[in-house]
Design a protein that fits this description.
The complex is a heterodimer of chains A (241) and B (282).
Chain A (H helix, E strand, L loop, with lengths): L10 E2 L3 E5 L3 E7 L2 E3 L3 E4 L5 E5 L2 E8 H22 L5 H14 L5 E7 L5 E5 L5 E4 L1 E4 L3 H11 L6 H18 L7 E7 L9 H5 L2 E6 L2 H15 L11
Antiparallel strand pairs in A: 1-7, 2-3, 2-11, 3-12, 4-5, 6-7, 7-8, 8-9, 9-10, 12-13
Chain B lengths: L2 H11 L11 H12 L3 E5 L4 E6 L15 E5 L2 E7 L1 H22 L5 H14 L11 E9 L3 H14 L13 E7 L5 E3 L2 E4 L3 H12 L13 H11 L16 E6 L1 H6 L6 H9 L3
Antiparallel strand pairs in B: 1-2, 1-8, 2-9, 3-4, 4-5, 5-6, 6-7
Helix pairs in contact in B: 3-4, 6-7
Classes of the chains: A alpha+beta (241), B alpha+beta (282).
């Protein structure tokens, strides 16, 4: 994570997570952008972005590279949609992302890519272009701390409501001790459309929610409360405050 | 040689040149080459696609197996050809590469229409670029797609219109058979059943008689092989150049693509099954 040879090179120490559940996918990341993890350059950076319907990714690494990469990936997806008249699957998107990272001009980007089409899935895409199918993943400088939380509580049959609480507490735990992660949080919730994929784009959009939180606590409180309301007997594993 | 003949020849020579009435003679000649080729038919069924083709054996000494009319280009796609065999093989090779490129790039089998369009694009280039001639072959591109995305949604809509509201959600992957014709001009058309090559008009009107009427949707059923063979017989009566005009397992090639044969990479119709199918035509 330390590559500061170029003066233009902005390293975002970061914590991001992605989790696949029974009815959808949750992606979350902190909002701190920093120079080498030592100076906070931005407190509202968005590191979870949509790349198309049903699909989004988190990134850790250089912001400039990530923005350029996401533009490229969106273009590739759009080309696929026009050429084949259908939506690319999460696996297809991950494969294209891996090839782009491997052959493109990107030095250091770690991605967690998730989506619900044709079913909920999370892929870890490494800086060398490695593409790995995984039920949950973390990336960035705080990933060890986040993984500690995920290893403890993740279950594949959890609903997205439960996974949202798990995702935010994993990020929270990382921000407590990783100085390069912090400030607010972005939480993306992609839910499987029960009708088997709605007929209108607007309709589908309802199943993609990108929430911005000004503080870590607000994110944790909001997401764990909601989970608790849905299934309080479940003894929700992430309500520690 | 009068002046009109000279002018006509000029349009003949370079296919990149339009005639005054807007025609591309070389492309039309290429279509003529296809018309002279032995016919291939394709029929979409409820569960898959059937391809059948007539092989022209110009001598009893010719090994029947060495005459190839139907080519598998990927697990889920096959191509039947008519016209110049050598040109057709080049297109088959192009198709195979295109299929693998899609798999490499997108980690999934290529949709049949995407492949047909890609082959059509390639053929079109040869009608416009300098120093080339059009392909003297037409193709029937048949495939069984995974059936998801927008196509899946469309079917969901029609299903929900006639019955229950919510079907199976995610991963309801209904296989979707498809059949496309690609001609020497570089256009591709989707068909429920069609033919290319010699006797196309007869075969097509036979298929139209069988399928275009009232209950067309239920016309073919699951087993399309009998209809494909019958249509082939309907078009082969007037092939004057053939020494052997009778349909036999030796002179017929057939392939059945269904979700099962896609999974097993099987589907080629064997001699016995062909003999049975042809016997039932009598």
């Amino acid at each position: 994570m330390d590559q500061t040879d170029s003066t233009e090179y902005i390293e975002t120490g970061t914590t991001t997570v992605g989790l696949a559940g029974a009815d959808g996918v949750v992606l979350a990341a902190d909002r701190r952008a920093s120079l080498g993890g030592r100076f906070v350059t931005n407190r509202t950076a968005q590191k979870v972005v949509p790349v198309g319907d049903h699909t989004a990714l988190t990134f850790a690494g250089s912001v400039g590279e990530a923005q350029s990469f996401v533009r490229q990936l969106r273009a590739e997806r759009s080309r696929y949609e026009h050429a084949t008249d259908r939506s690319p699957s999460v696996e297809t998107t991950a494969t294209v992302a891996g090839d782009l990272l491997r052959s493109g001009p990107y030095q250091h980007l770690e991605l967690v890519l998730g989506g619900t089409f044709p079913e909920p899935a999370v892929y870890q895409v490494g800086p060398g272009g490695g593409v790995m199918d995984t039920p949950y993943a973390a990336s960035g400088s705080g990933m060890q701390l986040a993984y500690g939380r995920l290893e403890d509580a993740y279950e594949p049959d959890h609903s997205v409501d439960t996974l949202r609480g798990l995702a935010t507490t994993a990020i929270r735990n990382a921000t407590e001790r990783d100085t390069a992660s912090g400030d607010g949080m972005t939480v993306a919730t992609l839910t499987v459309d029960e009708d088997g994929g709605g007929d209108e784009h607007d309709h589908e959009r309802e199943f993609e929610q990108f929430e911005q939180f000004e503080s870590i606590d607000a994110a944790v409180t909001t997401t764990t409360n909601r989970a608790g309301g849905e299934s309080d007997t479940d003894a929700e594993p992430g309500v520690a405050t | 040689m009068d002046s009109s003949t000279t002018r006509q020849q000029a349009y003949d020579r370079g296919h990149t040149i339009f005639s005054p009435d807007g025609r591309l003679y070389q492309v039309e000649y290429a279509r003529e080459a296809v018309e002279r080729g032995s016919p291939s038919v394709g029929v979409v069924t409820d569960t898959g696609v059937v391809l059948a083709a007539r092989k022209r054996l110009r001598s009893p000494l010719l090994e029947s197996k060495s005459v190839e009319k139907i080519h598998r280009v990927d697990d889920h796609v096959a191509v039947a050809t008519a016209g110049h065999a050598a040109d057709a093989r080049q297109l088959v090779e192009t198709a195979r590469k295109r299929c693998q490129r899609h798999r490499l790039r997108y980690a999934e089998p290529i949709p049949t229409e995407t492949l047909a369009e890609a082959i059509a694009d390639h053929i079109q280039e040869q009608t416009q670029a300098g120093g080339t001639r059009p392909y003297g072959a037409a193709l029937l591109v048949a495939g069984v797609d995974a059936g998801r995305g927008r196509e899946r949604k469309r079917r969901k809509e029609s299903e929900s219109g006639s019955g229950s509201g919510s079907g199976s959600n995610a991963a309801g992957q209904h296989p979707q058979p498809a059949l496309y014709e690609v001609d020497p001009g570089g256009t591709h058309y989707g068909w429920r059943a069609t033919a290319i090559g010699n006797g196309t008009a007869d075969i097509r009107s036979f298929l139209e008689g069988r399928l275009a009427d009232s209950d067309a949707e239920a016309g073919v059923g699951e087993d399309g092989l009998p209809l494909a063979l019958e249509s082939l017989a309907a078009g082969t009566s007037e092939t004057e150049t053939d020494t052997d005009t009778e349909l036999s397992p030796e002179t017929v090639d057939a392939l059945v693509l269904t979700p099962d044969t896609v999974a097993d990479r099987a589907g080629a119709v064997g001699e016995e099954e062909l003999a049975d199918g042809l016997g039932e035509l009598e």
